[in-house]
């Protein structure tokens, strides 16, 4: 082989060892996927190529790994354990109050020897479905229906940005008063007919659902904890499913009557979750009650 041929082969081998092709491929991949995934501890492939070529890199601001805005801004929030404790205590106290109330009625009926008519039991459960909050130690004031229908701000309505698919304000009282409450009353009356008394474990499962719902109302409408309302409404939904299942075990048709309530709460859960999303563009509202947002108080508290 001549000296000229050896020189040509050496130049070709030297060019093949240059990292141009691999570095270019990595640069294109980094440009397509975004540069935030590259660790700041490692030099960018394109910069490494320039440094190998002997050129000085331009000064750059220090890079950090890109993280979600929501976890970063909500990371400093501290769980409000006092509020969580009061929520749990409120549910227990409310359920105990309802249980005592039902037991007192059963005792009065038994001692008097007079049976309750079906319509009276239906009316009792209809009232419990709409006014169970009278047994709650928390502030469970409901939104003003008149203000909501007129577009004025009231707890849970027009006091926050709502998703575009939110039903009109008058739709909610129609659902609760004309559909949900009568179905709860009818199904509970069926269970009462089977059990023969009000203070029955199956009926108390539905009462527990009402207690959870009343506590959630405080979280969402009174305290306006939009983030904590998301797992809260899921608890309401789960307790409704539990009540429907418990009723179904005693009287299948009674359990089926509670299914529209479960369906409605599924829509409500989606609405609450989407409401949190559209009001949390800054990423400062976590999915738990945190200190500083508001203070949970019992209605009789003077603090």
Please explain how this structure is put together.
This is TSPO protein. The chain has 303 residues and is mainly α. The protein has two domains: 64 residues, no CATH class; 207 residues, no CATH class. 62% of the residues lie in helices and 0% in strands. Helix 5 packs antiparallel against helix 9.
Number of strands: 0
Number of helical regions = 12
Count of folded domains: 2
Mean pLDDT over the full residue set: 79
N/C terminus separation: 100 Å
- Supply the helix-strand structural class: mainly alpha
What is the H/E string?
A: HHHHHHHHHHHH
* Shape descriptor: globular
Task: Name the beta content range.
Answer: under 5%
Question: Biggest sheet, open or closed, and with what strands and sense?
Answer: none
Helix content: 55-70%
Low-confidence region ranges = 12-55, 61-72
Quaternary assembly: single chain
Rg computed from alpha carbons, rounded to a whole number of angstroms? 31 Å
GO biological process, one term: tetrapyrrole metabolic process
Protein name: TSPO protein
Organism: Symbiodinium pilosum (Dinoflagellate)
Main location: membrane
Question: Which key features would you list for this structure?
Answer:
303 residues; mainly alpha; globular; transmembrane; TspO/MBR-related_sf
């Amino acid at each position: 082989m001549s000296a000229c041929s050896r020189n040509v082969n050496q130049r070709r081998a030297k060019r093949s060892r240059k990292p141009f092709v691999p570095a270019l491929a990595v640069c294109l991949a980094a440009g397509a996927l975004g540069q935030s995934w590259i660790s700041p501890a490692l030099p960018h492939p394109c910069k490494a190529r320039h440094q190998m070529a002997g050129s000085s890199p331009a000064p750059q601001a220090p890079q950090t790994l890109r993280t979600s805005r929501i976890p970063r801004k909500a990371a400093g929030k501290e769980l409000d354990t006092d509020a969580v404790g009061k929520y749990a205590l409120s549910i227990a106290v409310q359920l105990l109050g309802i249980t005592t109330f039902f037991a007192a009625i059963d005792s009065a009926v038994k001692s008097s020897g007079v049976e309750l008519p079906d319509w009276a039991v239906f009316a009792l459960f209809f009232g419990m479905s709409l006014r169970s909050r009278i047994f709650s130690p928390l502030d469970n004031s409901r939104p003003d229906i008149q203000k909501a229908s007129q577009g004025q701000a009231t707890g849970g309505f027009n006091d926050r940005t709502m998703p575009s698919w939110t039903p009109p304000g008058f739709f909610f009282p129609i659902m609760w008063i004309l559909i949900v409450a009568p179905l709860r009353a009818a199904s509970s009356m069926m269970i009462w007919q089977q059990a023969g008394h009000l203070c029955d474990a199956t009926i108390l499962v539905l009462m527990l659902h009402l207690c959870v719902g009343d506590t959630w109302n405080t979280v969402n409408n009174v305290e306006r904890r939009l983030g904590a309302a998301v797992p809260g409404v899921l608890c309401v939904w789960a307790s409704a499913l539990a009540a429907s299942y418990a009723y179904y075990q005693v009287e299948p048709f009674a359990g089926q009557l509670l299914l529209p309530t479960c369906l409605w709460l599924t829509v409500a859960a989606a609405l609450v979750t989407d409401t949190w999303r559209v009001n949390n563009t800054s990423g400062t509202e976590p999915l738990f009650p945190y200190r500083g947002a508001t203070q949970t108080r019992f209605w009789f508290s003077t603090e």
